[in-house]
TrEMBL record:
Keyword Transferase carried by entry: yes
Domain Spore protein YkvP/CgeB glycosyl transferase-like: 215-373
Keyword annotations of the record: Transferase
Top-level taxon of the source organism: Bacteria
Pfam families: Glyco_trans_1_2
UniProt xrefs under InterPro entries: YkvP/CgeB_Glyco_trans-like
Endpoints of the signal sequence: none
Gene3D superfamilies: Glycogen Phosphorylase B
UniProt-recorded name of the protein: Glycosyltransferase
Gene Ontology molecular function, alphabetical: transferase activity
C-alpha cells in the first residue's frame, strides 16, 4: 500500500488564499483592534469620571409616567437611579391609588414624572397629608397647554426647559427649577456594536417637519457616506424613494438598541424639534425652547461625536468645540460632518471629553441628587437654586 504524503494532503485541503478574502480578514482584524482600543479608552474614562453618591435616609414614592414605551426606559432609568440615592424607593403607576400607598408608606417625597396621567386630586390629597410633592416635566415646552393645568398643584416643579421657569411662576408656582433630563449609563454607554451596523453617520428620531427639511438638504451631501436614519414618518422626505434603502422606516428602537446605533457610527446627528410646530405641539403660549433635549446627553454617553443644532443653553452643559460641536444650517452641518470624518483624532478627542463630562455631571443620579435636595429643602433662594443646577 502506497504511503500517503500528509503534507500534500493538507495542502490540497487548505482553502485557497483568495486575495479579496485575505484583505477582508485583515480589515476585520484591524477594525476589531481599533474598536477594542477605543472601548478601552472609554472604559478608562468611565472609571475616572463616575462620581460617588451617598445614600440618603429617606423614602421616595416614585409615580411613573404610566405611558409605557417609549417612556418606560426613562422610568426604569430614573427608578434605578433613585434606588442608589434613597434608602427606600416605592414604585407606583399614575392609575393606582397613590394616596393609599402614601398613607401606608409615609414617604418623604412623592415624585411624579410627566404627570399627565396622574389625577391632580390625588396630588392635592397628598399635600393635605403633609407629604412633599414634586413633578418633573419631560417634554417642555411642547405641551404647555396641558402642563400649565398640572404644575400649580405640586409643591415643587422641575422642567427641562429654562424658558418654562417664568411661565410656571406666572401661574403661581413658587418653587420652579430648571432641571434637564440626563442619561442612565445602564443603557447609554460605550458598547461593541455589530459589524453590520457600523457606518459613518446616523440619526435616530421622528421625522418632525423641521427635521425633514434639514435632511432633505443634507442627504445629497452624504450620498458617498455610509449613513442610516431610523424612525417614524421618514417617508415624508420629498425624495424618500431615493434614500429608502438607508432608512429604517417606522422603527422605534429600545434604549439599548439606540445606544448600539450611536456606538456604531462615527458621527451622530441631533436635531431638536421645533417649539412652534402646531401639527404636533400643544404650546399655544408659544414658549420658546433654548434648552437641550435628552438625546444630547444620551449620544454623548455613548462615546461618539455628536453634531447638534445650536440652542443657547447647550454651552451650559458642554464646552463648544471641545466637548460638543454645534451647527446653524444644513450647509454647515454637511461641512462639519466631512471635516470630522476626515480628522479622526479630533473626532475621538471631542467624543472622549464629552463622555467624561456626561458621566461626571449629567447622569440621572446627578440630576436626582439635586432634585431631592431642592424638593426636600424647607426654603431657599430661587435664583441660587437655578444657577446651581447648571454645572
Amino acid at each position: 500500500m502506497a504511503r500517503t504524503n500528509r503534507k500534500s494532503v493538507a495542502s490540497s485541503l487548505r482553502r485557497p488564499d483568495v486575495p479579496h478574502l485575505a484583505e477582508a480578514r485583515r480589515g476585520g482584524s484591524e477594525l476589531g483592534f481599533k474598536h477594542g482600543r477605543w472601548l478601552g479608552l472609554c472604559e478608562a474614562v468611565l472609571q475616572k469620571a463616575a462620581p460617588a453618591f451617598q445614600k440618603l435616609p429617606i423614602k421616595v414614592l416614585y409615580v411613573t409616567t404610566g405611558k409605557g414605551f417609549p417612556y418606560s426606559p426613562l422610568d426604569e432609568g430614573i427608578h434605578n437611579s433613585l434606588t442608589a440615592l434613597a434608602e427606600r424607593v416605592v414604585l407606583a403607576t399614575p392609575k393606582e391609588d397613590v394616596v393609599s400607598i402614601a398613607a401606608f408608606e409615609r414617604p418623604d417625597l412623592v415624585l411624579a414624572l410627566d404627570g399627565m396621567d396622574f389625577a391632580v386630586d390625588q396630588v392635592k390629597r397628598l399635600r393635605d397629608m403633609g407629604i412633599h410633592t414634586a413633578i418633573w416635566f419631560t417634554d417642555d415646552p411642547y405641551y404647555t397647554d396641558i402642563t400649565s393645568k398640572l404644575a400649580p398643584h405640586y409643591e415643587s416643579v422641575f422642567t427641562l426647559e429654562r424658558n418654562c421657569v417664568p411661565f410656571y411662576q406666572q401661574l403661581g408656582c413658587n418653587r420652579v427649577y430648571n432641571l434637564p433630563l440626563g442619561v442612565y449609563p445602564g443603557y447609554y454607554r460605550p458598547r461593541n456594536p455589530r459589524i453590520s451596523l457600523r457606518g459613518d453617520v446616523c440619526f435616530v428620531g421622528t421625522a418632525f417637519w423641521n427635521r425633514v427639511q434639514v435632511f432633505h438638504e443634507l442627504l445629497p451631501r452624504l450620498e458617498s457616506r455610509v449613513f442610516r436614519i431610523s424612525g417614524i414618518w421618514w417617508d415624508r422626505l420629498p425624495e424618500y424613494n431615493r434614500w429608502k434603502n438607508r432608512i429604517e422606516l417606522g422603527k422605534w428602537m429600545a434604549a439599548v438598541e439606540t445606544a448600539e446605533y450611536y456606538n456604531a457610527h462615527r458621527v451622530v446627528i441631533n436635531v431638536h424639534r421645533a417649539p412652534y410646530d402646531e401639527t404636533f405641539n400643544q404650546n399655544s403660549a408659544r414658549v420658546s425652547a433654548v434648552s437641550p433635549n435628552p438625546r444630547l446627553f444620551e449620544i454623548a454617553a455613548c462615546g461618539t461625536l455628536q453634531i447638534v443644532d445650536h440652542r443657547d443653553d447647550i454651552t451650559q452643559y458642554y464646552e463648544a468645540g471641545s466637548e460638543i460641536v454645534t451647527y446653524s444650517s444644513p450647509e454647515q452641518l454637511a461641512e462639519l460632518i466631512d471635516y470630522y470624518l476626515d480628522h479622526e483624532q479630533e473626532r475621538e478627542q471631542i467624543a472622549l471629553r464629552a463622555l467624561h463630562r456626561t458621566i461626571r455631571d449629567h447622569s440621572y443620579e446627578s440630576r436626582l441628587a439635586r432634585l431631592l435636595e431642592l424638593a426636600l429643602s424647607p426654603s431657599g433662594s430661587q435664583p441660587e437654586a437655578e444657577a446651581s443646577l447648571n454645572p
